[in-house]
Write a structure and sequence with these properties.
With 242 residues, the chain is mainly α. The chain has helices at residues 21-30, 34-48, 51-56, 80-90, 106-122, 126-147, 159-175, 185-188, 191-202, 215-229, 233-236.
């Protein structure tokens, strides 16, 4: 299991640690704008593959989680947004990002799917659950294409249904105008508002095009999300699309 080196009090990362979970967390903490963090994740994926992201989630490289290793022994990073970004990164493998540093054992592959399954079912935020469901589908598709369906990994959940359910819940939340412009609940709701905003910033922002809600409120959300993603209103609905 990985060590919990989540706090790093330095201004740079030694070259030997560039592809570690510590370097990843340092970089995500250094940049505060969502578009910077999205670019950081993509850059580290290109340079290092999925290994540092798996370490952030504490995916065991050997031994089977739930059998040889108690599930309670896994200690993922406590920052829920960083955890969601790491989960999202695991699903990028099918896009051709390969690194010699990536764990490739059958134990790791099984544990990776087990961790994603746990997060899809019981992740602490909508973004975590959505990212896990999407990553599971991406990984299985890649394995089915490479190995055939019989030899590929398996999960006990319907990831597509979970993905759809989370999206529907978040669309319903937006459409309810719970965070109305003339209502102080936006600032008072705390985590729920931030979780909703994070979902659309780091998740399926392209689906906002089909959301039916008050026009002024809709434009508020489009403005908030596009600014955080670093794209214009016109670009938003294709920004980050699968």
């Amino acid at each position: 299991m990985t060590s919990n080196l989540w706090k790093l009090d330095r201004t740079s990362i030694p070259e030997s640690m560039e592809c570690s979970d510590t370097a990843l967390i340092f970089s995500l903490t250094k940049y505060t704008q969502p578009w910077e963090r999205i670019n950081t994740v993509e850059g580290i994926l290109q340079q290092c593959g999925i290994a540092p992201f798996a370490e952030v989630l504490d995916v065991p490289k050997s031994g089977i989680l739930g059998q040889d290793i108690p599930e309670s022994a896994r200690k993922p990073h406590p920052n829920l947004l960083f955890r969601a970004l790491a989960i999202q990164a695991l699903g990028k493998v099918r896009e051709g990002i390969i690194s010699s540093e990536e764990p490739v054992s059958s134990d790791f592959s099984e544990n990776k799917l087990a961790v994603l399954e746990q997060e899809a079912l019981g992740g602490a935020t909508p973004l975590i659950r959505w990212c896990a469901a999407v990553s599971i589908q991406s990984i299985l598709l890649d394995e089915w294409q490479a190995q055939g369906k019989e030899s590929a990994g398996h999960v006990t959940i319907n990831a597509a249904e979970i993905e759809q359910r989370v999206v529907e819940e978040q669309i319903k939340l937006l459409a309810s105008n719970k965070f109305a412009l003339n209502d102080n609940s936006r600032m008072d709701s705390g985590k729920e508002y931030e979780n909703c905003l994070d979902f659309w910033v780091y998740g399926p922002s392209w689906l906002l095009l089909g959301v039916l809600m008050d026009c002024e409120e809709y434009l508020f959300w489009v403005d908030q999300i596009s600014c955080r993603k670093g794209c214009s209103h016109h670009q938003l609905f294709g920004c980050g699309e699968k």
